[in-house]
Amino acid sequence: MKHLLLTAVAAVSFVLPASADEPAPVPSPGEIAATAPAADWTLIAPSDLLVMDLAPDAKGKPRRVVIQLMPAPFSQGWIGNIRMLAAVHWWDGTSVNRVQDNYVVQWGDATEKKALPEGLAVMAESGYVESGFASAGVHAGVGGTERLLSVPVKTDAFSGLTGFWDGWPVAGAKEGYHVWPVHCYGAVGVGRNMSPDTGSGAELYTVIGHAPRHLDRNIAVVGRVISGIEHLSSLPRGTGALGFYEDPAERVGIRSIRIAIELPAAEQPRFEYLSTESDSFARYADARANRRDPFFITPAGGADICNIPVPIRPVVAK
Amino acid sequence: MKHLLLTAVAAVSFVLPASADEPAPVPSPGEIAATAPAADWTLIAPSDLLVMDLAPDAKGKPRRVVIQLMPAPFSQGWIGNIRMLAAVHWWDGTSVNRVQDNYVVQWGDATEKKALPEGLAVMAESGYVESGFASAGVHAGVGGTERLLSVPVKTDAFSGLTGFWDGWPVAGAKEGYHVWPVHCYGAVGVGRNMSPDTGSGAELYTVIGHAPRHLDRNIAVVGRVISGIEHLSSLPRGTGALGFYEDPAERVGIRSIRIAIELPAAEQPRFEYLSTESDSFARYADARANRRDPFFITPAGGADICNIPVPIRPVVAK
C-alpha cells in the first residue's frame, strides 16, 4: 500500500514503452512536465532569487529557502525595497516569528525596533498604491498594456478570470484588463498594518495552507518559495495570537538573506520553470484538470489556479 | 507589526461597542461565529469522534489528534470498517509513515503485513462502490433523496455546485442531485491502491496543503481533523518517494486510536460546530467571501468551498 496517492508533480524516472498490444499509458501531469523538451524550460535569473539561510536544525543540518521574486510589472515597488534590504544584509540576525497552521509563516525583526535603511520606497505615499492595490505595482494591465493570459480558466470563485503570465499564476477582473498575482501555497507576500500603510517589504510571509485568496489585492505578493519550503512549513506552530511564538526561544534565527548573485558563483542556486506559454504547459495544465492517469476514476473536469502549480526544478549541471 | 494578517477563524475576546458618533465596526467572520447564539451551535456526538494519541513529542508533551467522522449517507461503508478497526485497537502500535509537503500525512501499518480483522466490508465487492465512487457511500443524493445544499456556491472549478450539508463541505454535479464530500485542508480520506481496490479504511491520510480537489470522487473522504492537526502538519517531511519516511526511525508512533465513547467519560473530547443551516453560518460565509472588516481593502466577492471552513470549537464546561 505504498503508492496510495499520486504526487502533485511527481519526478518520473522512466516511462514504459507502449507495445502494439498495449495502449500507451496516459501520462500524468508530472510525466508531461518531466518529458517536456528542454526548450520549454526557462532559466530563472539568479538576480531574481532570494536565498534565505536559517539557523541549522537540531541535528546541525543547514536549512536553505530559495524564493523567486516576481517579474515586472508586478509589485516592483516592494521588490525594490526587498533588494535593498538584502543588499545591506538587513535581515541577518532577524528571525521567523510566526507559524500559523493552514495559513502563513512570517519572518522579520521580532523586536520591531530595528532601524530600516534610508531610501526605502514608501508605497502609500509614492504612487505605488492607488485606490487600494488596484493600480501599478500589483496590477499588470496598467498604462494600456493588454495581453492575453496563458491557459485562462474562467471558473474562479475569487475573480473573473485566472491564468498564467510569464510563469506566474494571476487573476483578472471580469471587465477591463487588470490582472494581479494570487496567494497560492508558497506565495510570498508583504506584511502590513492597517491601510494606508502597505508595508515596506521588511516583514514577509509565505503561505503554508489552503490558498488564502481573500488576501489577493489586499496584500502585495512579491514572490514564491521554489525550494526548501519544508524548512518553514514543518516548523512548530506558534501558540500565541495569530500563531506568533510566545517564547522568544521558539523563534528560528535567520543567518542571512541574499540576492543569489551576491553569493559565490559556484554556490548560486539555479532553477528553471516550465514556460507557461509552451504547449507542454498547456498539456500539463489540462492533465491537472482532467486526471486520466491510471490511479484516477473520475476526472474533475477543472482545477483552480492554485491546483496547477507551475513546474519548477533545479538545473542539473552537465 | 504584530497584527499583520487576520486569522482565518479568529477567536474574539470582545467586540467594541458602537457609539453614536462611530459606525459599528464590520464584524470579521471570526467575530460573527464567536457571537452566534448558543442555539446555532451543534454538539458533535462523541460516538462520531476518533481520538488518535501519537507518541509524545521530543519534550515529552502528549500529541492528541481528534477526527470527526462523516455522517450518513456519506462513506458509511469505510466508516463502519474504521469503527471496527478502532474497536479492536488495530492501529495501536502502528505509525505515521508519510508526510508530503503541501499534500498529505498518512498513517497505518508500515509493515503492510499486519492482519486485518475479519468482517471488514470489501467495498469494491459489496456494492458500496458502483461506477467509480459515483453511488452509495460517497454520494448523498442516492435513492431519490433530494435536498438543497446550504449556502450554495455555483462557482467551483471542480464541480457544478458546492455548499454545505449537515456541517460538511460538499460538491455536486451540474445535473441531477448527486453530491459528494470534498478534500479541504484537514479532510481525512482512505488510502487505496489502483481500482477496484478502494481501500479498507486501515490506511488513512489527512490533507495538509492546498485542497487536492482532484481526489474528490476518486478516494473516499471519511472525516476531518478538528483538533490537533498541528501534530501532523508540522512533522518533518519524508524524503522518500511521495514523502514516505525512508528511515523507520523517522516514523511517529501511534499509541492508540479510539472512538471517543470508549474513553472514560471525563476524558471524552467535546466539540460543537456552527450549524451550516443557521443564519449565523450564512452571515459567516458571506463575510468570508466579502471581507469588509477593517484590514481589508478589496473584498473578493466570492470564496471557494475550502475557504469557508466550518467553525468548530471545544465545548467549554460550565
Ordered list of secondary-structure elements with their pairings:
2 copies of one chain form a homodimer.
Chain A: H1 29-34, E1 41-43, E2 49-54, E3 63-69, H2 76-87, E4 95-99, E5 104-108, H3 123-126, E6 150-153, E7 161-165, E8 168-172, E9 179-181, E10 187-190, E11 204-207, E12 221-227, H4 230-233, E13 252-259, E14 271-274, H5 279-289, E15 312-314
Antiparallel strand pairs in A: 1-14, 2-3, 2-13, 3-12, 4-5, 4-13, 5-11, 6-7, 7-8, 8-9, 10-11, 10-12, 14-15
Salient structural properties:
Cyclophilin, 8-stranded antiparallel β-barrel, globular, 318 residues, alpha+beta
Instruction: List the chains of the largest interface with their residue counts.
Output: A-B, 76 and 76 residues
CATH architecture of chain A: Beta Barrel
Classified by CATH, the class of chain A is Mainly Beta
Shape of chain A: globular
Number of domains of chain A: 1
Q: Say which CATH homologous superfamily of chain A is assigned.
A: Cyclophilin-like
CATH fold topology of chain A = Cyclophilin
Oligomer: homodimer
Q: What this model shows, in words?
A:
The structure is a homodimer of 318-residue chains. The longest helix of chain A is centred in the N-terminal third of the chain and has 12 residues, at 76-87. In chain A, 12% of the residues lie in helices and 23% in strands. Chain A has 318 residues and is of the alpha+beta class. Mean pLDDT of chain A is 85; it is low at 1-19 and 125-145. Chain A has helices spanning 29-34, 76-87, 123-126, 230-233, 279-289; strands at residues 41-43, 49-54, 63-69, 95-99, 104-108, 150-153, 161-165, 168-172, 179-181, 187-190, 204-207, 221-227, 252-259, 271-274, 312-314. At the A-B interface, strand 5 of A face strand 5 of B.
